[in-house]
Specification:
The chain has two domains: 242 residues, 3-Layer(aba) Sandwich (QueA-like); 77 residues, QueA-like (Thrombin, subunit H), CATH 2.40.10. The protein contains ten helices and 17 strands. The protein has a nine-stranded mixed beta sheet with strand order 2-1-17-16-14-3-12-13-15. Strand 6 and strand 7 form a beta hairpin. The radius of gyration is 20 Å and the shape is globular. The two termini are 25 Å apart.
């Protein structure tokens, strides 16, 4: 299948450069997979779209300030942490990459330094002089929120500041707990405490899994044929108690609704091949979902509107149907939905 079949043109005005003033006041497009019907709504009405006994599965990963500005031999570099290797080492992207020399020492702050150990194509491996909690503490002091490049570009085109002090709060879900992501699981950004409380009162069960967003989520698909693409792995964790509760709900016929493509990837990675059952797991997943994939566990999905030709767009197309997603995106563009990380949401049931 050609990657070009998953392209679309988006007016620049529909790229959301800031989130909704109130998280749950974002628009919500509801897509029925069986009928292909589309309905307009708002995120704060999510409880009216679900039923008592439904399960919402959230990703509790926490975005770290992964954009570091460093100096090496009187030159400034931008180093983006993309995936943790161990307590002191990370895979990174570097700008300007051509100027970065292996075995050089980069200074990021009074206490934080990193040695460039090696590089392979666009991936650079740094070993820092700190580790564990001490390293995360220093990253928090010196780093910036890794706002997606298309948001920065859109802000710049509008002559606005690229970075906002509000991004520290805006680009983080309210249920984020575990440090490790370099991009937000954006479908979760629409939830506020009031909405979560309302959902619980309505009998909606909330469960949490972890997937640390790195290259596997936002790397561009770079092959003409989607089947030829290989996705980077990302760390995920589904603990035994959560797996047990989800399996019980599934056996009782209750709907499992994943919040975001990252939660989808956790559940589908942990599902047995030959049954609708999860196995508790922690480790790396390089699951790549595109049209033709047979879903094993989820019954619904909450997601944002994704970039053209992205693995995320391929995943939602696999779940809802290629033509149905194309129709939904065309409708969203015609009706001024806001796109991408800070944009509006979609409920697919």
């Amino acid at each position: 299948m050609k990657l070009s079949e998953f392209d679309y043109k988006l007016p620049k005005k529909l790229i959301a450069i800031e989130p909704s003033v109130d998280r749950s006041k974002a628009k919500l497009l509801v897509l029925n997979r069986q009928t292909g019907s589309l309905e307009d709504d708002y995120f704060f009405n999510l409880g009216l779209r679900l039923r008592s006994g439904d399960i919402l599965v959230l990703n509790d990963t926490k975005v770290i300030p992964a954009r570091l500005i460093g100096r090496c031999k009187d030159r400034e570099f931008e180093v983006l942490l993309v995936k943790q290797i161990d307590e002191s080492s990370w895979e990174c992207w570097v700008k300007p990459g051509k100027r970065a020399i292996v075995n050089s020492i980069f200074t990021f702050g009074p206490r934080l330094k990193g040695k460039l150990l090696k590089r392979k194509n666009e991936i650079f491996v740094f070993e820092f002089n700190l580790n564990g909690k001490e390293l995360f503490s220093e990253i928090k002091k010196t780093g910036q929120v890794p706002i997606p490049p298309y948001i920065l570009k859109a802000r710049k085109d509008l002559h606005k500041a690229e970075y906002s002090s509000k991004d520290i709060y805006n680009y983080q879900t309210i249920f984020a707990q575990k440090n490790g992501s370099v991009a937000a699981p954006t479908a979760g950004l629409h939830f506020d405490r009031s909405l979560l409380e309302q959902l619980s009162k309505n009998g909606i069960q909330i469960e949490k899994v972890t997937l640390h967003v790195s290259l596997g989520t936002f790397q561009p698909v770079n092959t003409d044929e989607i089947e030829d693409f290989r996705i980077h792995s990302e760390y995920f964790d589904l603990n035994e108690d959560t797996a047990k509760r989800l399996n019980q709900a599934k056996n009782e016929g209750r709907r499992i609704i994943a919040v975001g493509t990252t939660s989808v990837r956790v559940l589908e990675s942990a599902a047995k091949v030959d049954s609708n059952e999860l196995v508790a797991k922690a480790g790396e997943t390089s699951i790549y979902v595109y049209p033709g994939y047979k879903f094993k566990f989820i019954d619904g999905m909450i997601t944002n509107f994704h970039l053209p030709k992205s693995s995320l767009l391929l995943l939602v197309s696999a779940f809802a149907g290629k033509s149905e997603i194309r129709q939904a995106y065309d409708y969203a563009i015609q009706n001024n939905y806001r796109f991408y990380s800070y944009g509006d949401g979609m409920l697919i049931l």
